[in-house]
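This part of the workshop introduces the protein records we will be handling. Getting from the letters to the C-alpha cells is the skill we practise here. The record below serves as our worked example for the rest of this section.

…
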Amino acid sequence: MNLKCYSSLHKAIVNWQMSGLPNEKEAVYGALDRWIAWETEFPLIAAAKALRILRKRNQWKRVIQVAKWMLSKGQGATMGTYDTLLLAFDMDGRVDEAESLWNMILHTHYRSISKRLFSRMISLYDHHNVPDKIIEAFADMEELGVKPDEDTIRRVARAFQVIGQEDKQRPVLSKYLSKWKYIHYKGERIRVRRDAWDD
C-alpha cells in the first residue's frame, strides 16, 4: 500500500473545490480515477478519511460524488458509508435518491440494518415532511426487530398525528418510551415516572 498516494488522494478530494473541477459526474469520476490510476489496491482509507472531512465541512455535493464513486468501484459498501450518503442526500434535498439507496439497503442488507440507519432515514423523511414514509420505515424497523431510540419514536408518533391516526400514537409511545425519564430540578438530576410528570 502506497501511503503517499493515500495522502495525495485524500488531499486532492478535500481540496478539489479550489482546483476548478466541474460538477459533472463524468468529470468528477474521471478525476478520481486518475488520482488512483497507478494504485494496485483501492485507497479506501484515504477516500474514507476524505469523506469524513467533506462531511465536517458540510460539502454535501462532494460527499455524494465521492461516496457514489466509491460504491461504483465496489468499495466502501458499509453501514458508515450508507449513513453518510443518506445524510448528504438529506442535507442536499435529494429525497428520491435517498429512497433509492434505502430500498437497495433494505433488499440487500435487511438482516443487518442498524438502528442508526433506520433513525437516519426516518429523520430524513421527517425533515422533508413525508409522514407516510416515516410510518413505512418504522413498520420495517418493527418487522426486523430493531428497537427505535426516543427521538425516532417521537418522529413516528408525530407522523401518526399528521396523517390523522392519533389512535396509533399512544400505543407506540407507551411501547417504546421508557417509564422513567430524568429531569433537572434545583440543580440536581432526578429520575421521575414519565407518565406522572407528563400528565
Observations:
- The first helix runs from residue 3 to 15.
- Residues 1-6 have pLDDT under 50 and may be disordered.
